[in-house]
Amino acid sequence: MRIVVAEDLYLLRDGLVRLLETFGHEVVATAATGPETLRAILDHRPDVAIIDVRMPPTNTDEGLVAALEARREVPGLPVLILSQHVEQLYARELIADQAGGVGYLLKDSVFEADQFLDALERVAAGGTALDPVVVTKLLARPTSAPHLARLTERERSVLALMAEGLSNAAIAKRLFLSEGAISKYTTSTFDKLGIHSDDSANRRVLAVLTYLKD
Amino acid sequence: MGVARGFARAVVLLALVAVVPVVSIVPPLVGQLTGSPWSLTNVWTWIGWLLLFSAAALGLARPIGTLVRRLARRWSGLRIEDGYRQPGPEPVQLATGYWWNGHSYERTRRDAEMDQQWRRRIGDPALWRDVRWILVGAITLGPVCAVPPAALAGAVVAFTRRSPFAIVIGVVLLAIAAAASPYAWRLLGPLAGRWLRLPDGAAAAERVRELELQRADLTRAQAAEIRRIERDLHDGAQARLVAVGLSLVTAEHLMDADPERAKALLREARKGTSESLTELRELVRGVHPPVLVERGLVDAIRALALDSPLDVSVVSDLDQRLEAPIEAAVYFSVAELLANAAKHAAVGKAQVSFHRSDGTLEVVVEDNGPGAAVLVPGGGLDGIGRRLNAFDGTLTLDSPPGGPTRARMEIPCA
């Protein structure tokens, strides 16, 4: 994959680039500030951009702003946000455009290199990869919408794993169920949430969004 | 209504400022009328009157001053501190045998106590401010407040005369009484504000005392916080990183001899790093939440609201960031209030609103809980109040039994 890496700390940027290249990916550009990030993404149009939230010049949420701006210019452009902390607030902002291709993970998720690269590929393919902590919090919100309350406990946990970005096969492994059972749960979840779309990846994203929009 | 109330207020004020002059003028008048040698033409009568006046002024100054301050507060909304000296400490005997009363050394305990009493009662500048008011009030507020009752009394007398001219005079006087009533008492505010107010020096001294207390509070809280952070780092992340280093060193040695164990140690090291990061993240959140840095107060509270078990709505009309220390103080105060609310199972909803006007930030946290929350000295709410005090801010709590609970924080910000 062609990847842009935006991270202001040299050590982390270098480490990320090395990790990605070890696994055979091509880092087409790196950036260390918000404006640089936006330019790099728009110039190189990578398969996916890995972006840190806090970057110069203001050291606030430059990276997130650049990512959202880039996705306004190029809808659905895959971005994976890496941060030292995860917030529901940012997660909601990232998935609000409903275009998919969004990842939001803690920086330590790179320690599990295989899972991290899986997540990266999912995002590049238009799926989602949200940190489990954020997903748990997102789904723990008291919901008042009636069609959401109709979800069973099992359907909710499947939905949570879907939000993290797992495939049916991966969900089945995680819940010790057969893949067939999982696909039944996902179908009933889609029905209850009133999602009728043909594109299966998009359907999964929509399900999560519907749940969050309450 | 305005006329009747104004009239009553004028009469009350007149009585208050006239009492000392009247009390002291009565004996000479009686002397004059009864034909005793204490007539108004006798010089000694006037000397006696002066003594009497001084005694009455000294004795009544404090109660009258207190009453006037209270009325000024209630009627004119003017808050005037009395600034009386507080009782000193118990005298203590020193090694030299002398007694120290907090101000001077005396030979005996009795002397020490008497000196203290004197300083408090007669030597108190606040008392002399009250005495000065007796004089000033009598010649300024007195005549003005005398207008309505005097005009009314004149009218009553005129009406008893039954001549057309007297009736006209009576009507005119009545009109004067009615016209002056709503206004005469209003002189109280400016006069009391000017003459009873603490001198700038005293107010400044009071402020210095307040600031000293706040500073002591702050430095203590800060030291405790730094100790906590140090302990957390020392026992947590630091220790874990040492363990990670040990695993790596061992893995390095085992790499050739026992690659399987070396791999296991490397996995362990990786886990240790993850755990240290989690701990550090929690620690950082407690010191200064990252969202606060990245997004400012309102979004940080929004993020907090999303994580709260309550259904919290956030409304704000702030259009720019505040100073970082104020943001942090308000953030942690709101966090504590929401945590308090969440402790009550009955609370389902809460609202946080931010409003800024005239250089004041107003933050209101309201929940639909059972109410009856109280400010306990040393408790969590008191802690919030003290945290805000450092910025000259205040916390007011309105929590009737049955709810809702409403905590209002006000902080001056330029």
From TrEMBL, chain A:
Cited Gene3D superfamilies: 3.40.50.2300
One Gene Ontology molecular-function label: DNA binding
Residue ranges occupied by any HTH luxR-type domain in the UniProt entry: 144-209
Modified residues (4-aspartylphosphate): 52
Lineage: Bacteria, Bacillati, Actinomycetota, Actinomycetes, Propionibacteriales
UniProt name for this protein: LuxR family two component transcriptional regulator
Highest taxon of source: Bacteria
Pfam families: GerE, Response_reg
Annotated organism of origin: Kribbella kalugense
Domain Response regulatory: start-end pairs: 2-122
Keywords: DNA-binding, Phosphoprotein, Transcription, Transcription regulation
UniProtKB/TrEMBL annotation, chain B:
Gene Ontology molecular-function annotations: ATP binding; phosphorelay sensor kinase activity; protein dimerization activity
Transmembrane regions: 7-26, 46-65, 133-159, 165-185
InterPro entries referenced in this protein's UniProt entry, alphabetically: HATPase_C_sf (IPR036890), HATPase_dom (IPR003594), Sensor_HK_TwoCompSys (IPR050482), Sig_transdc_His_kin_sub3_dim/P (IPR011712)
Pfam families according to UniProt: HATPase_c, HisKA_3
Residues annotated as domain Signal transduction histidine kinase subgroup 3 dimerisation and phosphoacceptor: 227-292
Chemical reaction(s) catalysed: ATP + protein L-histidine = ADP + protein N-phospho-L-histidine
Annotated GO CC locations: membrane
Keywords: ATP-binding, Kinase, Membrane, Nucleotide-binding, Phosphoprotein, Transferase, Transmembrane, Transmembrane helix, Two-component regulatory system
Domain (Histidine kinase/HSP90-like ATPase): residue spans on this chain: 333-412
Enzyme Commission code(s) on record: 2.7.13.3
Name listed for the protein in its UniProt record: histidine kinase
Source species: Kribbella kalugense
Phylogenetic lineage: Bacteria, Bacillati, Actinomycetota, Actinomycetes, Propionibacteriales
